[in-house]
Amino acid sequence: MTPCKCRFCSAPLTTIFADLGMTPLANSFVAPEDAAEPEAFYPLQIYVCDLCKLVQARDVETPDAIFTDYAYFSGFSPSWLAHSERYAAGMIGRFGLSQASKVVEVASNDGYLLQFFQRAGIPVLGVEPAANVAAAAERCGIPTQVRFFGRAAARELAAQGHRADLIAANNVVAHVPDLNDFVAGFEILLKPDGVLTLEFPHLLRMLAENQFDTIYHEHFSYFSFLVIERVLAAHGLAVFDVERLPTHGGSLRVYAGHANAGGRQASEAVAALRSQEKAEGCDELDVYTRFAQRIAQTKFALLEFLIGARRAGKRVAAYGAPAKGNTLLNYCGVGPELIDFTVDRSPHKQGRLLPGTRIPVKAPDEILKAKPDYLLILPWNLKNEIMEQMAPLRSWGGRFVVPIPEVEILA
């Protein structure tokens, strides 16, 4: 494979952060009739830039191939909908959004977020590259343009009258291969006094809690606060606040606006997080090169549990078909011989097979029929929500298992 360069600063990439072997695309679910067909596997190697410290994957597939027909629909997670409703209420109150405002969401998925602004009478626009997901938003009355976001798209949207008072970009900045083009689009589309909010998994939490399963090909970049602040600044955007969120195992919500817009002073939270990341070594290579050592230990522990359960005659099923679960199962080499099936609330995943491992995906009520001894929670960040939904598991002595940060059997 030819040498690659940092997608932010163009420095050569030479330092490995994590090597998870060969895996399929995490959301490339397989139809049962295609179970015997070949499947494409790609190297899942993650580097850290020696110069700017951006953690990033090699490009192995085009965005068109990954996102044009997408299996993830945000609206099927009750906890994510509740999070989105709180966000909308918070932004309306904090920034005085009204019927005269415009809210644009980049990577708007099925309209899960914009619906809450629309209900408040605020004009909205979604920008979503996956046509099948955008169609679901349109059916719900959310105006959506099917396109990838960047400089060209931002100029066209601005020319159409869509300059934004608020741009929301939740869990998307990690998904873009051309990072500079993408972020430059925000500066173009944002009104002079507008606000940009970005939400993304916090790299510091990944490092601290061994969240290696959040690595997959759709995630091109993994951000510390120090790095995202530099990226935004390079495109004329200044961070003025930051919040720590529990979502996705620990995320950041970063607030930014035009660097030349007056009246906004950076909050104490900004200075505090900068200081913490510097103190914990986020500007030093050592903290990144140590990460790979923990990954193998998790693999050993999960395989020991699953093999031990099988040898003891126990049945194991899984809950969820998230991208993180597919990374974990493929890296560990786990298939239907160790996990009978998994379940998911999304009908778009039910009846299909997990990529690579070919574990069947069923509806959640299959758990009540099969009565497994153990339920492995693949979206471990939602474990409390899932344990509540699947509480009847305890009635036949079943137990829950989470794999991250380490394998743990829960009552």
Q: What's this entry about, in short?
A:
The chain has 411 residues and is of the alpha/beta class.
Examine the coordinates and then state which fold CATH places here, giving the name of the CATH topology of the largest domain: Rossmann fold
Q: What helical percentage do the residues reach?
A: 25-40%
**Whole-number total of structural domains:** 2
Identify the CATH class of the largest domain: Alpha Beta
What is the global morphology? globular
**Low-confidence runs (pLDDT<50, min 5 residues)?**
none
Strand content: 15-25%
CATH superfamily of the largest domain: Vaccinia Virus protein VP39
Examine the secondary-structure arrangement and name the CATH architecture of the largest domain: 3-Layer(aba) Sandwich
- The span between the termini is 47 Å
Rg from alpha-carbon coordinates? 21 Å
Class derived from helix and strand content:
alpha/beta
- Integer average pLDDT: 93
Strands in their spatial order, largest beta sheet: 6-5-4-7-8-11-10
Task: Enumerate how many helices there are, as a single number.
Answer: 14
Report the sheet with the most strands, covering strand number, pairing sense and barrel closure: 7 strands, mixed
Structure summary, number of beta strands = 17
GO biological process, one term: methylation
Protein name: Methyltransferase domain-containing protein
Pfam family, one: Methyltransf_14
GO molecular function: methyltransferase activity
